[in-house]
Amino acid sequence: MSAFSLTETRLASLRDRMASTGTDLVALGPSSHMLWTTGVHPHGDERPVLLLISADHAGFLMPSLNADAARKATDLPFRCWRDDEGPDAALSALLDDCDARRPGLSVVLDETMRADFALLLLDAMDSPSRRFTGDTLAALRAVKDAGEAAAIKSAHRVNDQAVRKAFASLREGMTELEVQALIAAEYERQGAAPVFCSVCFGLNSAFPHHSSGNTRLARDMAVMIDTGCRVDGYPSDMTRSGFFGTPDEEYRRVFAVVESAVQAALKAAKPGVPAAEVDRAARQTIADAGYGDNFLHRTGHGLGLDIHEPPYIAASSDAVLQAGNVFSIEPGIYLSGRFGVRLEEIVILREDGPEIFSDMPRDMVVL
User: Fold this and answer.
1) Count of CB atoms situated within 10 Å of the CB of 2
2) CB 3.0 to 4.6 Å from 229: which of 89, 187, 242, 277, for a disulfide?
3) Reduced to 3 states, what is the DSSP secondary structure of residue 98?
4) For the whole model, what pTM was predicted?
5) Cis omega before residue 274 (within 30°)?
């Protein structure tokens, strides 16, 4: 399917959602929402850029200096504005194009756009009601198509090789940053772009979001690597844990509990099941083992163009899982001043349950 045909398909699906939710206008900023809908990812700065979508029109408010580059990705119409004139007249014309001057319209706002862009739009309208994209665009993006799933799988193939190489290359005296650089080099060798990488040695593995630094690897240290790359626009995300030396009895116990929590969450994840139940399955497993206070975060997050997007696998989530959802299952136990263990898989939910993207086993890596 061509990029333009994909835009037509996604706009049609969005308009169906708009009709079923009573939405008159969807307003997107230069974000992953705009990219998913149209393939356009314009330069983002303080100059207002908007995509407005109504039942009968879709068009851009676009700074003139960005227009030529943006036109390469779309055939949707532009209302352009220059720095010497400002965006107000162009925005007014675009609102007329969308028949969005009527009072009390229902507007869906891109929750990731700049606040000044959103206020510029709302101030130009007549008493609109507003909400974010949860029941329209975000709901569509949460169900991945075959092309998206294939891209995510490709990114995980690269990620698997990079993480295997990183663990195999560990040597006493290496720093976390040196391992991070090795992973980045492997991504580059395979034509992928790094998205993030957290290499954690020793007590640093007890920090769920550790920033890699100059800590050096020594014997009898825990190792945790959480990393991801991007292929064809879509990312991977995976965490593996292991031990450089001889793991003690508690490390082995904690590792086994985390693995059991992963399995419990995988078993619970099915279409029609509330995301909160998947979180509960992992959390209860850890609590029953006596480590409930050491599981510091939700069980997972959705993944697509963004590393973190709906659905969120959390106790507070009201999402109900659907076939085609892609999300992480990543329980962890963190013992402050000692070590942490997290095991993370990204899965796509099929009708009969979750399919894991990574081919790398979750077995404890002992070196």
Assistant:
1) 8
2) 187
3) coil
4) 0.95
5) no
